[in-house]
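Exercise 7. Given the encoded structure of a 190-residue chain, write a plausible sequence.
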């Protein structure tokens, strides 16, 4: 008997709409269920694209994570077979996870396009490599130095280097305006 009930399929990425602020809990719950229900072959990956943000709080540099797509997680899974028939197991797996509102495009979800997936994954890779400052500065902004030898000095932003995350600030030292190059996290707006 060579009959196959469900022809093999290819895993594709799907956007899943979740309760805002519950992305991490939904992912944790899904990962736990993938193990306990042995669904690793059908549900392959669950990701929450984030970026690291740095800011000054109470005079100290603090790093936090910010979600790139609040209210969404992305799941790579085999939702359809080769004949475009819906696999019920992964569909119910997603729909029955606490905190999930549904697939981003309804009950007959469409896989993300390859260019959308590549864009999302390259954005994740790019954001993993660098820490983004929470506040972006502009020339002419009045700032206060929060760290380093010029701590508590006030000055004016003369130049902004967004690629390197640095600013050149004119501070007054011994009555003279002196340019000082600092990292974003070392200064805060007045």
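Solution.
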């Amino acid at each position: 008997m060579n009959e196959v009930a469900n022809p093999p399929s290819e895993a594709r990425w799907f956007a899943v709409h979740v309760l805002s602020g519950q992305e991490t809990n939904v992912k944790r719950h899904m990962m736990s269920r993938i193990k306990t229900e042995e669904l690793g072959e059908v549900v392959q990956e669950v990701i929450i694209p984030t970026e690291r943000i740095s800011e000054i709080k109470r005079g100290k540099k603090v790093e936090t994570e910010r979600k790139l797509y609040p209210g969404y997680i992305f799941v790579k899974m085999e939702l359809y077979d080769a004949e475009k028939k819906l696999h019920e197991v992964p569909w119910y797996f997603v729909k029955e996870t606490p905190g999930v509102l549904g697939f981003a495009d309804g009950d007959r979800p469409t896989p993300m396009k390859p260019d959308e997936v590549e864009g999302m994954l390259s954005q994740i890779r790019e954001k993993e490599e660098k820490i983004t400052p929470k506040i972006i500065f502009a020339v002419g902004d009045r700032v206060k130095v929060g760290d380093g030898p010029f701590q508590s000095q006030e000055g004016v932003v003369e130049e902004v280097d967004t690629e390197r995350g640095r600013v050149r600030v004119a501070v007054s030292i011994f009555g003279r305006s002196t340019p000082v190059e600092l990292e974003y996290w070392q200064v805060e707006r007045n």
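Remark. The domain at 142-189 is CATH 2.30.30.30 (SH3 type barrels.). Students should compare their own answers with the one above.
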